[in-house]
Every structure is written in C-alpha cells, then in structure tokens.
Amino acid sequence: MTNSAPTEMIFKLIISLNAIQITKKLAEEPDLYLLWLVHKAVKFTSMKNVSILFAFALLFVFNFTFAQNDPLDDIVKLEKKAALFKMADLATSEEKGIDLFYQRFNWTADPAEFYISGEVVMYFTVTEDQLSEIDLEMFNAGLDVSSVQSSQGNLNFEEIGEWQFKITLPNALPLGAVDSLIITYEGTPNNTGFGSFVSSSHGPDETPLMWTLSEPYGARDWRPVKQDLNDKIDSTDIYVTSPLGYSVAANGVLM
Fold it and tell me: 142 with 190: CB under 8 angstroms?
C-alpha cells in the first residue's frame, strides 16, 4: 500500500476487525479504543501518515459517539450543569449585600515567576440595609491580603477556610449607599480548570509567559473577587507592570 492512500488503509483495517468488538469497545471506552486503533494503523503505514490516520480515527469516533447519543440530551445535560453553578451563586448572592459597578486592577507580575501582587479596587452600591460585613472569595492558601481600605479608613478582615474572605465595616452602610474597597494583596495563585493562572514558556528560546483563563470560576484562584455571575460589572480598568520586553493583552480597549 502506498503513502497516498491512508484513508483506504484505515477502512481496510476497520473492515478486517470484528465489527461487534469495535462497537462494544467504542461504547465502553472510546478514548482508549481510539488509541488502540491508531496503534494498529501505525503498523500498516509509514510515520508520515500517522497524523492523517489519527485525525481520521478521531473523526470516526466522534461520528460514532454523536450517532449513539441524542444531541438534545447532551445539551440538556450541559444546561443542567450550568444551572447548578448558577443556583450555587444565587444561594450566596444576597449574603454579599453589594452590587459591583466598577473595578480597577493594578498588578505587578513577572512571567518568569508564578507570583502576583497588586491592588483590587471595587466600587459598589449597597443592596441591603445596615450592611456591616462583605463576603468575598480568594485562594487563602496562597494569597495574602496586607490591607483593606474604604471611605471609613482601614478595615478589619479575616480569611476563613479555603476560600472565604470576610471584611468588617466599623459603621454599617444603609441601603443604596455607594462606597468602595481597596484591597492590597500578593502571593502564589492556584491553577484550576483550563488554566485559571499559568506561568509557562513560549518559542524556541522558551521565553517566559503568563496567562489566565477559566473565568469567572477561576478568578478567585488569583485575586479577591465577588464570586457571583449574577452581578455584572459595568466597566473595568486594568493596569499591569511587567519587565521590559513584555506586552500585556486583555479584553477591552488599549488606553
């Protein structure tokens, strides 16, 4: 068989296998059986065609999977998972008692170091009468807050458990009041999801780089945050200080 016919080879390979065995294995462990198919295919072709064969086998498995499952059922399952996350946020939304409308971030970061320091500024409107505490979230095991300030001066705060960060107001705020917090912190972030905070390298010279993803659930891994998807912030300013030679990118408009 020539290198010009990789698709013909994979068809012959599949036909030569027991059809019942393929169906059973794909239903039980599609990912592992995909690797097995590619392993068998490599024995019958040159390495030049391995990537083509892998892509073809992957397409075969995907087609099989979607043929067995109703796409509507998959969508329903995904929506149920999203609803559970939303319900979890709703359960704590009223306890937080504030509606954020503006945030300013002022960070210092070196991509060569898995570390971050800076300020998180939050402007908010009070949504419950006589608000005396504000509950936020952050990765307490790695991040340390040095100060919290508001119009009332320096505020007392407490890190509770793995994620809770509680701020105490000396004078309770009435419903509808507008105030702000300035939280100064630093430390070693956590990394969850698809990369909530990552320090890695890029290119042939392995130039250090830093990036963050998995918002919003991964936000608390690297900064103090109100972890509530129902509170949409109107606007945000981001300032980042980094070593010479680096560029910083984010959503929004470069100023």
Answer: yes
Structure-token match 């419903």, residue found: 175
Cα angle value 2/5/7 (rounded, 5°): 145
Q: How far apart are CA 119 and CA 187, in angstroms?
A: 12
Task: Look at residues 107, 187, 184, 109 and name the one whose alpha carbon lies nearest to residue 142.
Answer: 187
Tokens coding 117: 């320091």
- Give yes or no for residue 45 having a pLDDT over 90: no
| Maximal CA-CA distance, the chain | 82
> Tokens 């946020």 appear where?
89
Contact between 214 and 195 (Cβ < 8 Å):
yes
Question: How many CB atoms neighbour CB 156 within 10 A?
Answer: 10
What pLDDT does residue 251 have? 85
pLDDT value of position 82: 55
Over residues 43-65, the mean pLDDT reads 47
Q: What mean pLDDT comes out for the span 85-106?
A: 71
d(CA 249, CA 240): 10
